[in-house]
Design brief:
This protein is mostly helical and 143 residues long. It contains six helices and three strands; from the N terminus they run H-H-E-H-H-E-E-H-H. The longest helix has 26 residues. The protein starts with 18 loop residues before the first helix and ends in a 21-residue tail after the last helix.
């Protein structure tokens, strides 16, 4: 079979084997939630919402449920009056710390270069068609 790879079970393989990890860890709000729980420890819902800032209660609830399902967050319910719920980062979530540290290191050294590239591009230095390697399509197939 040419053009695509297939697993033994008949399903297509991921073009990038880390795609599932990116979907889990780097969704819009997962990273700030994990960071806040790692940085500040166990948090109640309102504390976590304040620590993150601009997240809505609905979205925070959705993300926390998904992260609990994924094993990244532990939710503890205390049957008190009024009831209390706390969230903490799990050991699995904490195991992502080296990844985040590496990304933080990369960003401090490389984000200025990204900004420079953007400025050059926006100034017109990078605008226009991208160069094409190899023969032009108009030339026909190489023989």
């Amino acid at each position: 079979m040419s053009g695509s790879a297939w697993r033994k079970d008949g399903g297509p393989e991921q073009a990038c084997p880390i795609s599932p990890v990116l979907d889990i860890v780097f969704s819009r709000w997962t990273t700030p939630i994990l960071w806040a729980l790692n940085e500040y420890g166990t948090q109640r819902f309102v504390q976590l919402q304040r620590a993150i800032g601009t997240i809505t209660p609905k979205v925070l609830t959705q993300r926390l449920r998904q992260m609990e399902r994924d094993g990244l967050v532990v939710r503890t319910y205390y049957p008190e009056v009024p009831p209390r719920v706390e969230y903490e980062i799990s050991d699995l979530g904490r195991s992502l710390a080296p990844l985040f540290a590496t990304l933080a290191e990369w960003s401090s050294g490389h984000l200025p270069l990204v900004e420079e590239a953007r400025e050059r591009f926006d100034a017109g230095e990078g605008a226009g068609p991208a160069p094409v390697a190899g023969p032009s399509p108009a030339a026909g197939p190489a023989r």
